[in-house]
Specification:
The chain has a single domain, classed as Glycosidases (TIM Barrel), CATH 3.20.20.80. Helices cover 39% and strands 17% of the residues. The strands form two sheets. Strands 1-2-3-4-5-6 form a six-stranded parallel sheet. A hairpin with a 6-residue loop joins strand 7 and strand 8.
Length: 237
Amino acid sequence: MSYRIEKYLSFPEVNQEDYLEGKSEVEIKNLFTEILQNGVYGFCFSLYEDGQKPGDIISEQQVRRRMEILKPHTNWVRSFSCIEGNEFIPKIAKEFGMKTLVGAWLGNDPELNKLEIEALIKLSNEGFVDIAAVGNEVMYRNDLSEDELLDFIDKVKQNIPKNIPVGYVDAYYEFSARPRITEVCDVILCNCYPYWEGASFENSLKYMKQMYHQAKDAGNGKNSSFQKRDGQAKAKV
């Protein structure tokens, strides 16, 4: 992901305390260790090891070994795909008592897209999915049209339990620029990377809050809660 000035929509600056001001590099490292040991809300899970890449078939044993490293530090894991070994991520996470945000990776290959969507629906119906993410930065990469993505989101919604919120992952500004996609999402899943937009280390947290509030404004509160698709109840995510 990189900075696209024509896409970025500015949001008023958020006042905040600078928690890192005046801290040395050693103090910052110690702070990171303390946060990790106390527990992190969630991690994006990578199942790959040295020499491996997307498209390689990854074993259940490898996923389990890597999941065991994260288990003591978090309650949530996010996966990016539902095939080629990625399907083991939510299964093992649930075995370890963790919650899951499970993503179907969509691109410009229709056959792979079909496999991903079918696998996400299957995992959802088997009870391994707490939040379903249909695609990751598809609009950013221009891999699909809006209509194509909306069709995939609708297919997932129509074929999984209604208490599982369905969302889409993309750069925060895409949810401002594409209201049709934002409207159909039960939950807004925005990527906020200050580094890729040239924010300095000292200002990165403040900058990220601006990104977050822009997506929150576009989603009208969907980032913090979701409405069941039967319209009967709300739940925190």
